[in-house]
Amino acid sequence: MDLLLNPSAQHGPLQLHEQRVVSLQASREALEEMQRWPGYAITPLRSLRPLAQRLGLREISYKDESGRFSLGSFKALGGAYAAGCELRRRLRDRFGIDASLGQVYDGRYATQLKSFTLCCATDGNHGQSVAYAARRVGCSCVVFMHEHAPESKAAAIRRLGADVRRTRGTYDDSVSIARKEAAWDSTCILIADTSTAEFEQIPAEVIQGYAVMVHEVLQQLQGRPPSHVFVQGGVGGLAAAVAGTLTEAFGKRCPTLIVVEPTAAACLMESARRGKASHVGGDLRTNMEMLSCGMASPIAWTILSRRADAFLTIADEAAIDAVHRLSIGEAAGAPIDVGFSGAAGVAGLLDVMKRDSLREQLKLGADSHVLVFGTEAGERRA
Which of the residues 75, 153, 172, 309 is marked catalytic? Predict the structure, then answer.
């Protein structure tokens, strides 16, 4: 494992260019929309008090996304919301229809929307979210998945009616293929959860969808800020949603935010070292498959470059240990359904608490209240 403190970190107010990406107002608007969706429910904020006591911490709060919209991942919030926002714009621009998001999602304009195809690249969870949106609004969907992505995720996407196209290489290769597909076909709408520029509207709306989860946490904590947050990395969208929303909510009282990545795919730590959104090579293979990303998202880095306090890499064995502790009930007193990617935040916390020097650097102790995100359910192999 490796820990890198961010020398550029600050807890001042969000700047205007950051608020374009994510803000409390944007998360409220997304939440108000999703509250009207079938199956919406606030996901639990569980106490990991038994684990906290073992580690010598005051409290660990675990946001459990394993049941989100029956899709089993926080990603259900981002892609589906961004797809609706973009389809609303397409209805206005192509057909002159000024529709609400609710009207887009309830299938009222399915006849017009049949002329569009949603597409995206995915390791698995984002593709399910986009496919879910396509089924709701009545258009088709194509999802590009690299050859190493889990077949169980591909099967879940197909069950939602989407066409899954396997690609060679890594997640980053499938991202490139999806972008090329959308570039030559004007009816193909790319719902990307990563960007090539510091601001793009659709990836921003994906992040704003993720921020619904953080808005729920704010309600569940009743205005009391945690002292620390351990959050998964990937391309950075989730971490940006968490960092930006908590910064605006708590200002100078914002918790210390640690971004956790697999050692084999630590593009955000590399970005912190270089001072810009960066790429890491290699095969990116890790059991934390939903975090197997080689290129940091520039739009996410807009937030994380100033709002992440530290970057932490962990080995696959750490994720295995965290899943074991959570699934047998050791951490919470009852079993929790979680996969390796979903447990990465807990794994990072466990690793830090084993090392006195790292614990002291992050000021973790008996008064600490740590927030972690259980981002997905356990893997069900097809």
Answer: 75
Fold type of domain 76-190? Rossmann fold (3.40.50)
- Residue range 184-206, pLDDT digits in tens: 888 899 999 999 999 999 999 99
pTM equals 0.96
Q: How many C-beta atoms lie closer than 10 Å to residue 3's C-beta?
A: 18
Euclidean distance between CA atoms 137 and 91, whole angstroms? 12
Q: Going by C-beta distance under 8 Å and a sequence separation of 6 or more, which residues neighbour residue 125?
A: 71, 72, 73, 74, 75, 76, 153, 290, 376
List the catalytic residue out of 64, 123, 172, 351: 123
Is residue 75 annotated as part of the catalytic site, yes or no?
yes
Q: Are residues 240 and 302 in contact, defined by beta-carbon separation less than 8 angstroms?
A: yes
Right CATH number for 2-74+201-374 from 3.40.50.1100, 3.30.2350.10, 3.10.350.10, 3.30.420.200? 3.40.50.1100
Give the tens place of pLDDT for each residue, 210-269.
999 999 999 999 989 999 999 999 999 999 999 999 999 999 999 999 999 999 999 999
DSSP one-letter code for 43? P
Chain centre to alpha carbon of residue 98: 30
- Rounded Cα distance between 101 and 81, Å, is 9
27: CB partners within 8 A, 6+ apart: 208, 211, 212, 214, 215, 241, 245
